[in-house]
Write a structure and sequence with these properties.
Blueprint lengths: L13 H14 L4 H4 L1 H8 L3 H22 L8 H21 L4 H29 L4 H15 L1
Helix pairs in contact: 1-6, 1-7, 4-6, 5-6, 6-7
């Protein structure tokens, strides 16, 4: 889905909704950990420190990966980075559910979820800005709002 300036300058066009909708859907499971924390803590017999570490791993993954992954958007096509980030985020969230027998593997998957989010979010903003150059602020604002709605 290579998007270049001027190829589809409809603010409410299909590419606009595809980018925003994909981010929204990919982020829907993000808060499941918080909602299910009491059940997860009982299942894994976690301490408060372990429970908060699993949650914080997402934030750490986002913060550390931003230093490395965000500059990639200057070198590689934003559409490719967006797809890689979305795939990483969704795969890590799925593996959190099916391949986490204890808190530490869960923290690893949450870390990768944060890294995928940063890659999908920042490259998605770049794609949105190039999609509708004359309405860039509106397009990016809607994309950001879709991300927050997903969480």
């Amino acid at each position: 889905m290579a998007v270049t300036a001027g190829t589809d300058n409809q603010l409410w066009g299909p590419r606009f909704f595809a980018l925003s909708g994909a981010l929204l859907c990919a982020l829907l499971p993000f808060s499941a950990y918080n909602a299910l924390l009491s059940l997860i803590r009982a299942e894994w017999a976690m301490s408060n420190l372990q429970a908060s570490s699993v949650y914080s791993a997402y934030l750490l993954g986002a913060a550390l990966s931003a230093l490395v992954l965000v500059p990639l958007s200057d070198r590689w096509p934003a559409a490719r980075l967006w797809l890689v980030g979305l795939t990483l985020m969704c795969t890590a969230q799925l593996l959190f559910v099916v391949a986490s027998p204890s808190p530490w593997p869960a923290a690893f998957w949450r870390f990768l979820t944060g890294a995928g989010y940063i890659l999908a979010y920042t490259s998605g903003v770049k794609l949105m800005a190039s999609l509708v150059p004359d309405r860039r602020a509106t397009a990016v604002g809607f994309f950001v709002a879709a991300g927050y709605a997903g969480t």
